[in-house]
Structure formats: structure tokens, C-alpha cells
Amino acid sequence: MKDAILIISKIFGYTTAGITVYDTHKRGRDRAITLPIENNTKVMSDLYLSNRRNCGKSSLGNQMQKAYIRKRLLTDIFENIDTVIGYISGGLAQLRDSIIPVSLSAMAIAGKNIVSKIGGIGLALYGLNYAASYILRLIKPNTHD
């Protein structure tokens, strides 16, 4: 019986770790798509407004600014950097939001005997709370948004 609880705790731990890794990747991928678009939009509007304000003051300055805008539009390096930053920031944000299940799953996976059982029981209670709050709507979820 005591080995069964340990095995179930390990199963809960591995399952939660897998779900967390999947969610982390998904949120990172989504942020990697949106961040370059947001940054390009911001940079292009800033450059356009700056160009309109400085238009006509200096011929050389106008040519340099137009060359920079063209370079910015045609170069993928900024978009690639933003994509990497977006993936990392999205993934870390998901891990931050999932710190309780990540900690409990680490306890369930890496812990010995009683620590593993505590992690498994904690995951079971966390799962029941999640199901009652978000799926069955029995408990009002604690959202700070």
C-alpha cells in the first residue's frame, strides 16, 4: 500500500511536469509570435513620427533616416532577436505563474518516501482545487487581474 502511494505520487509528478513543460512551450511560442509584431509596430510608428518632425531640416539627415527605415524594414535580425526574447519571456512567465505545481511536481519526482508523498498529495489537492475553481465553478477563483 505504501509503495502504491509513492508510485501514484511519482505519476502525478511526471504528469504535472509534462503539462507544465507543454504550457511553457505554448506560451513561449505565442509570445515569440506577438513580440516582434508589437516591437516592429512601435519602432515603425516612432520612426515615421520622428521623420515627419525632422522632414526638411537637413537633406543628409533625411536621407540617413530613410536609409535606416529601409534597413529596419528589410533586415530580419531585429525580428529574430525579438522572437528569441519573446519565447524566453513567455516561457519564464508561464513558469512563474505555475510555481506551485512545478515545486510540488519536483518534490514528487525527486523526493524520497515522505517528501515524494507530500508532493503527490499536494498535487492531488492542487488539482482538486483547480477542478473545483475553474472547471466546476464551485469555488470562486482567486484572480488578481
List keywords for this structure.
145 residues, mainly alpha
Commentary on this structure:
With 145 residues, the protein is mainly α. It has one domain (2-135). It has 5 helices and no strands. Helix 1 crosses helix 5. It is elongated and about 85 Å long.
Please specify the SSE layout and strand pairing:
Layout: H1 2-54, H2 59-74, H3 77-97, H4 99-110, H5 113-135
Query: Could you give a short account of the major beta sheet?
Result: none
Query: What is the number of helical segments per DSSP (H or I, 4+ residues)?
Result: 5
Helix and strand element order:
HHHHH
Low-confidence stretches: none
Distance, first to last CA: 43 Å
Write a compact overview of the structure shown.
With 145 residues, this protein is mainly alpha-helical. The protein has 5 helices and no strands. Helix content is 86%, strand content 0%.
